[in-house]
Design goal:
Distance between the termini of chain B: 18 Å
Distance between the termini of chain A: 31 Å
Largest interface: A-B, 20 and 33 residues
Shape of chain B: globular
Oligomer: heterodimer
Structural class of chain A: alpha/beta
CATH class of the largest domain in chain B: Alpha Beta
Strand order of the largest sheet of chain B: 5-4-3-6-7-10
Number of strands of chain A: 37
Shape of chain A: elongated
Number of domains of chain B: 2
Order of helices and strands of chain B: HHEHEHEHEEHHEHEHEEHEH
Strand content of chain A: 25-35%
């Protein structure tokens, strides 16, 4: 400030400089000026001094204002007059549902907040920030009573928590606080470690007090189901991953499995402290349609909400496959269709198997026509698989044509008993290729192999990815010469270019001709692992069903996260009904892309989505975030230590340094600045009326 | 009052040769008088006078009689031979005014023109310069060459110093024993009442006096704006002035000064004419001729 006072020399210099700059004029005589009015001369002199004093005062005021003089305030006396501005940062994650020695954490948190609110004055103001997956400002600064009302009706979010984001919001709310208020942040949380991960990224100004209301026990032993897989995957059946977040071994836990709210199995579990274990779940075969699968732990632990996990399963209607067997009186393993049937339904009649994608029925060639004409329990046949037949029943061609034209799929194999002329004649409207002369490979050491195949075709979709099977391994000793007809598509070739698989569309159906026997007479394919996926693929292709139309797990979401539900292009602008786990229903409309935006699935459980015709099109499971099962907490002292406090130093922003008020200080630089501005406005008027 | 001539001082200021200047002015002025009611003015005669019994009929202007049916007698220069003293102020205060309206230049031109008119009228002009010191620059003499001598001296005269109207000048005045005409060309910015004393002295010497009070437009209007420091041309004294504040008061004071001088002259039966140096010279010439005719 002393240095700034040197600026007082400026107006004096300006005064002097202006004086020297008056123009000098030679005049004939000054006699008529010499008798100037003494009074006006005195007035002018007075105005000159006034102008100089005015300019000095302006500079002095500006220097003083920038020096920011202040008066110290007694803290106690000051705070007694100051308004309290309080922000509650409330952890509403799923871990707040845990129960400890003092009761449920969520209940405890609300009680403690209410107690503090009741101790505030009416002119104090309170804000409420809820920390779920994101921090939400539930109330800006409002009278304590209105925030208490909001709190009463508040429920936890079942998601994770981000206290760092909550602190950021609180600081933002308090940033407009003036010098006449005391700013305080209450952090109400169980201080779960996962919630405290980003608190150091939210710096808090020094003049904001941060108080901690820690709820819950320091140590809370807990077990939880952190993962549930209900579908078959990589050869493994349904299973649940159970984790222990306890310091002690658990020996008396029970895992129940329910399907559609019916318990189907129970098993005892023993888990070591801090360990996790994959538990196989026994799920019975299920009818086609949507099913809930729930795994529940029966154990005494802190958090009950993570002891249940749900998944949804969709069991598709199996494809109805009619397999023609010319030798049904022979032993099964000697039947022509043995390998086909085994490939299509390898787990049939197993006690612990889920239904397959195909429902097989065997029929003799003579019964074929009659069988095709009748429905199978109300369902039409999807696919007819025909091994190489020696005798084709008369008129079978028309029957098969009608079947295919109406949308059925026909898979024809060739073989030793096939008469090319008979096939070409009877099935001429169906065959994708004319059957030529039979051919035998040159020698045992040089069989034919598959060289090329179309992975874009659903028939070979199983082989798109690497390490899904080498189709070059099977060996083929015999085949027919084939001449594909117009409109036919070759899906696979032998290494010498002769087609192996040819297909053709007839009416609404497909016909697939496989240039080998259905058994091992002409090839050793059934011995290799690529046989089953090939048979599945070609059957689905013939049945025109999606490659994904198989047992599948429904969508699974994490509680508290933002997500949309896709209904596909077919659901564009369509109306749906969503049923929550508690039975409540809500109507929703999809957007232009068939998306249901943020459908409000916050509660854990299974949700059912129905279309306008009340047909259930999907089930979805919402589960707690797995990290909420770990109730390990941060110590309060560690929490405070991790908080980053902004110091009062010259590195403050220029704006804060210029215009911010400090704690316990009463600054009046604004008054000085205003006074200087007023004088600056007055100065031109005085200057214009003053001559020097 | 002949009003046919407009002698623009700015134009005159562009002509350096005073003799040429004087002749142009006079001839222009007098030719303008051709249709004037002041019949009888002529460059060849000094004057006309009404016929009185006993005048020689040889000198009656019959043309005038034919036109006016009145008898007028020509007077020749030898008959009149009026002594006309021109008093020109050469103090520093006279050297003021813009190029086209400088008082000293205006005064010199006026003096030269008057000398030319006097010579043409067969009067005897003389020139007395007064200022820092007084001197009889050209004694009165009735000859054609007298004007040339006056022109020469006027051309070399400079305005400088103060205005001393003292015994030196009075001594010169006292040499004017014969009745005549005194033309005083000055701004009368003397420090005291000495200028008025000059007029009284001249009157005491039985001179017909004609005062041309020269003032520049700047002295009358004070057209300056803002704050200035004015420096006196004679005393070099300086004074700061806020012209916008003071203009009205100044104009009042200068008017009071002129009025006071005029009253003084009227009281002494002296013809007073205030001349703005941006005004044409015909006003001055007309005034002179009227005055001359009355003598």
């Amino acid at each position: 400030m002393l240095a700034g006072m040197a600026a007082l020399a400026i107006p004096v210099l300006v005064h002097l400089l202006l004086k020297r700059k008056k123009k000098r004029v030679h005049f004939s005589t000054i006699r008529f000026f010499q008798l100037q009015d003494e009074q006006s001369s005195r007035r002018r002199k007075l105005r000159n001094w006034l102008l100089l004093a005015l300019r000095l005062m302006i500079v002095a005021l500006l220097v003083l204002a920038f020096a920011r003089p202040y008066l110290h305030q007694n803290a106690a006396a000051g705070s007694a007059q100051k308004q309290l501005r309080v922000v509650f940062v409330l952890d509403s994650s799923a871990s707040m549902l845990a129960t400890g020695t003092d009761g449920q954490r969520w209940t405890l948190a609300k009680e403690r907040i209410q107690k503090i609110i009741s101790g505030l004055n009416a002119d104090d103001t309170v804000a409420l920030v809820e920390c779920a997956t994101h921090a939400n400002v539930l109330s800006g600064f409002a009278p304590p009573a209105s925030v208490a009302q909001i709190l009463r009706e508040l429920s936890p979010s079942y998601g994770v928590s981000n206290l760092g984001e909550g602190l950021q919001q609180a600081v933002r709310l308090l940033s407009g606080s003036g010098q006449n208020s005391l700013a305080t942040i209450y952090v109400v949380s169980d201080l779960q470690k996962s919630a405290c991960r980003s608190i150091s990224a939210s710096p808090i100004p020094q003049d904001i007090e941060v108080k901690l209301l820690s709820v819950g026990d320091a140590a809370s032993p807990n077990l939880g189901i952190v993962q549930l897989d209900a579908e078959l995957r990589d050869g493994a059946g349904p299973r649940a991953l159970v984790a222990s977040f306890s310091d002690e071994d658990t020996t008396s836990a029970t895992l129940d499995v329910s399907v559609d709210d019916q318990r189907v199995s129970s098993q005892s579990l023993a888990i070591k402290a801090g360990a996790s274990t994959n538990v196989a779940l026994a799920v019975p075969p299920l009818k086609p349609g949507w099913h809930d699968v729930k795994a529940s732990l029966r154990v005494r632990d802190a958090l009950e909400s993570d002891n249940t996990r749900a998944a949804c399963l969709f069991v598709p209607e199996p494809a109805q496959v009619l397999v023609v067997e010319p030798r049904n009186s022979a032993p099964v393993y000697e039947q022509e269709s043995f390998f086909l049937s085994s490939a299509l339904d390898p787990t049939k009649d197993s006690t612990n198997s889920l239904p397959g994608a195909f429902n097989l029925t065997q029929v003799t060639p003579d019964e074929l026509s009659q069988k095709l004409a009748s429905a199978n329990n109300g369902s039409r046949w999807n696919v007819l698989m025909v091994p190489g037949l020696k005798d084709l029943p008369n008129g079978i061609g028309n029957t098969l044509s009608a079947f295919v034209v109406q949308g059925g799929g026909l898979v024809l194999f060739l073989g030793e008993d096939v008469s090319a002329n008979r096939y070409n004649g009877e099935l001429r409207d169906l065959l994708p290729a004319r059957v030529g002369e039979p051919d035998t490979c040159p020698g045992p050491g040089s069989p034919w192999r598959i060289a090329l195949y179309d992975t874009n075709s659903p028939a070979f979709a199983a082989f798109r990815l690497p390490n899904t099977g080498d189709l070059r391994i099977p060996q083929f000793g015999k085949r027919f010469g084939l001449e594909p007809v117009e409109g036919a598509t070759r899906l696979a070739f032998f290494d010498d270019g002769v087609p192996l698989v040819v297909t053709r569309s007839v009416g609404r159906g497909n016909v697939v001709l496989v240039n080998t026997s259905a058994n091992t007479a002409w090839n050793d394919w059934p011995k290799h692992k690529t046989f089953v996926p090939f048979i599945h693929g070609v059957t689905k292709f013939a049945a025109q069903t999606s490659a994904h139309d198989q047992l599948q797990e429904g969508d699974s979401f994490v509680a508290g996260e933002d997500f949309d539900v896709e209904t596909g292009a077919a659901g564009r602008l369509a109306q749906f009904t969503l049923r929550s786990p508690d039975g409540k229903e809500v109507r929703l409309t999809a957007d232009e892309q068939g998306r249901l935006r943020e459908p409000g699935m916050a509660m854990p459980g299974v949700y059912s989505l129905r279309n306008k015709s009340s047909h259930e099109i999907r089930r979805m499971a919402v589960n707690l975030p797995p990290q909420e099962s770990n109730l390990e907490t941060l110590r309060p002292a560690d929490f405070q230590q991790q908080l980053v406090r902004i110091q009062d130093n010259p590195k403050e922003t220029l704006a804060a340094g210029l215009f911010g008020a400090r704690h316990n200080q009463r600054e009046f630089w604004t008054v000085l600045l205003l006074a200087a501005l007023v004088l600056l406005l007055v100065e031109p008027f005085v200057a214009n009326r003053t001559s020097i | 009052m002949p009003g046919t001539l407009n002698i623009d001082p700015r134009t005159l200021a562009a002509i350096d040769d005073l003799s040429l200047l004087a002749r142009i002015v006079v001839e222009g002025f007098l030719s303008g008088l051709h249709r004037s009611p002041f019949l009888g003015y002529s460059t060849e005669f000094s004057a006309y006078r009404a016929y009185t019994q006993g005048d020689n009929l040889r000198y009656v202007d019959w043309k005038v009689w034919a036109r006016s049916d009145e008898f007028y007698v020509k007077q020749f220069e030898d008959d009149t031979n009026l002594r006309c003293q021109i008093f020109l102020d050469t103090s520093a205060s006279m050297d003021f005014g813009t190029a086209g309206a400088n008082k000293f230049h205006y005064g010199r031109v006026l003096a030269a023109v008057l000398a030319e008119v006097m010579v043409r009228q067969h009067d005897a002009p003389g020139l007395i310069l007064f200022g820092e010191n007084a001197r009889q620059a050209v004694p009165t003499h009735a000859s054609r060459h007298q004007a040339e001598e006056i022109f020469l001296l006027l051309a070399g005269a400079k305005a400088f110093g103060g205005t001393r109207v003292d015994q030196d000048l009075f001594r010169i005045v006292q040499t004017l024993t014969r009745r005549g005409l005194a033309v005083v060309i000055s701004d009368f910015f003397t420090a005291d009442e000495s200028a008025r004393e000059l007029l009284r002295q001249l009157q005491a010497q039985h001179q017909e006096i004609l005062v041309f009070h020269l003032l520049a437009p700047e002295e009358l209007d004070l057209p300056f704006e803002g704050e200035y420091i004015f420096e006196d041309l004679e005393s070099s004294e300086q004074i700061p002035v806020h012209t916008d504040d003071f203009r009205r008061e100044y104009q009042k004071r200068i008017k009071d000064f002129c009025d006071a001088l005029k009253r003084e002259c009227v009281g002494l039966e002296i013809d007073y004419q205030m001349l703005r140096t941006d005004a044409p010279l015909d006003v001055a010439l007309t005034e002179y001729l009227e005055r001359r005719a009355a003598v």
